[in-house]
Specification:
Elements lengths: L1 H21 L20 H5 L28 E9 L5 E9 L8 E10 L3 E6 L6 E7 L2 E12 L4 E21 L5 E20 L6 E9 L3 E3 L2 E3 L4 E9 L11 E12 L5 E10 L3 E9 L6 E7 L2 E2 L2 E10 L7 E9 L1
Antiparallel strand pairs: 1-2, 1-19, 2-3, 3-6, 4-5, 6-7, 7-8, 8-9, 9-12, 10-11, 12-13, 13-14, 14-15, 15-16, 16-18, 17-18, 18-19
């Protein structure tokens, strides 16, 4: 009876929290900087449209819900991946997790994300025929480095967090001219500490899981005279293997359904929904959907997970159509032992 009551309370809270905002349209609510921290990098999560808050994961949990890292079964886990983002922007990411003494002391993890925005032309207004003066190229970039920790406090309840340093360099800009009319430039870069925190709860009702996390909590930062905040995001989610309601062999077949309700700082509330079918713990087919969005909506993915000499290797791919922009492709590699 208690379990059913908890499920009802969770579902009711999610409905009340997100019922009205979802009908508000795509009205922008605020602005934030360091938007590279909002892009989903892991191929599995992206194929599920980011609905990973309540799913058990490994080192890549540091990018979503750090608490779910506590439930990994291996001592070591490493992940690497690449995202071919819109406008020829490229992401590289990596994560590693260490679980000493079978999790007695929890799970420790590190993560990194780097962003290459490519080369851009730098110009300033000028009183000439073109109306501008070309002063060369610049190459903006960004990165984030994190250290995380997660622990299962009981066989049902886990907590986790991450502290990370995020840095962004937008190149140099002309801020004035000297007496000889030579341009005076200034570097526009800034770094800040940010925090992530999450919980994961196994309800006890079949395979139903509940998760919650807060990401990118930090102080305000500023470029010159303009201040802004990081893309703070609050997420709640539930997930379950719906084959629990059937008589199918759940050891060889799994059909995970995951739903996340998200509250971003700079966008209306969203629902992320994902479905993952896993055959014999080796082949995974995935699909996700996010609403509301400006361009992206449906995502697809596939994963292959063989076990060789005691090592579990995972190859994941995700594909996201992106409207008027280029389609987005994500590739991930993971190994655990």
């Amino acid at each position: 009876m208690r379990t059913i009551l908890k499920i009802v309370l969770i579902a009711s809270f999610l409905t009340i929290l997100f019922e009205n905002p979802l009908n508000a349209g795509n009205r922008k609510l605020a602005q934030s900087g360091f938007k590279f921290l909002s892009v989903s990098v892991d191929a599995r999560s992206s194929a599920l449209s980011g609905a990973l808050t309540s799913l058990e994961s490994r080192s890549t949990a540091l990018f979503y819900n750090p608490a779910s890292m506590s439930r990994m079964d291996y001592m070591f886990d490493f992940s690497l991946g690449q995202v071919n983002w819109i406008a020829d922007i490229r992401y590289l990411y990596g994560a590693a997790a260490y679980r000493p003494m079978n999790g007695t002391f929890g799970v420790f993890g590190v993560s990194f994300v780097s962003v290459d925005y490519g080369a851009m032309r730098s110009t300033i207004l000028a009183n000439n025929e073109q109306g501008f003066l070309d002063i060369g190229e610049f190459s903006p970039f960004a990165y984030a480095l994190g250290f995380g920790y997660a622990k299962s406090l009981t066989n049902k309840f886990s907590v986790g967090g991450q502290i990370k340093y995020a840095f962004q360099d937008l190149g140099g800009g002309v801020v004035g001219f000297g007496a000889d009319e030579s341009p005076q430039t200034k570097k526009f870069n800034v770094g800040v500490l940010a925090f992530d925190f999450g919980i994961l709860y196994k309800t006890g009702y079949k395979s139903l899981m509940f998760g919650m996390n807060i990401r990118n909590f930090s102080q305000e930062i500023e470029y010159l005279e303009e201040s802004f905040q990081l893309p703070l995001n609050f997420e709640m989610g539930i997930s379950m293997n719906v084959l629990d309601f059937t008589e199918m062999d759940t050891e060889n077949h799994k059909l995970l359904v995951s739903i996340d309700a998200t509250h971003p700082r700079d966008y209306p509330e969203q629902l992320d929904m994902g479905v993952e079918y896993v055959f014999q713990k080796t082949l995974a087919l995935r699909m996700g959907y996010t609403t509301p969005t400006d361009e992206q909506g449906v995502s697809f993915g596939v994963g292959f997970s063989p076990t060789v000499s005691g090592m579990n290797m995972v190859l994941d791919y995700a594909y996201t159509p992106f409207g008027i922009f280029n389609d987005v492709h994500r590739f991930s590699f993971n190994v655990s032992f």
